[in-house]
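tool_call: predict_structure(chain=1)
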Amino acid sequence: MDYIGQIIEGLKYALPAAVTGYTTYYFLNRFYQHEEQKQIILAKKDLRKHGLPVRLQAYERLALFLERISPAKLVQAIQPVSDDLHQYELALIRQIQSEYEHNLSQQIYITDKCWEMINTSKNATMLFIKQVSEDKNLKNATDLQRALIERSSKEEVPTNLGLAYIRSEVTELL
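tool_result:
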């Protein structure tokens, strides 16, 4: 009996100590988890606060890119240096590529879907220029310039779709 008494006596001290230890561990663990979540939330909030202006700037730059490669504006910015229609077509396409390469780094700040729309708009604009330049009635670079302006005013140009998508994403951000 003496042996069982000692065990019971030991359990009187060990059991409350174990319960107290477990309770302390449980509450401290929850406290640290809560603090960690709070830190993550604060870090994300800080990132949004400082990251939003960078993202908006990327959207602004890409909107400017699409404006610059819009056929009507492009032909106003890039004047033909000769009468050669195909040389002028290549100059316009090279300018689009140059503008695109200048803005490549912006893709890390925008959504993948938006970047796809930018690429699609760029490629469709280059195709638009090629299609217009294939018109057999065009004799020289000036004719191509006029034809691009006319078709841009009559038809929906591909850059407008990209701009509309950028606007919708920025609206969601704000």
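agent: The chain has a mean pLDDT of 91. Proceeding to next step.
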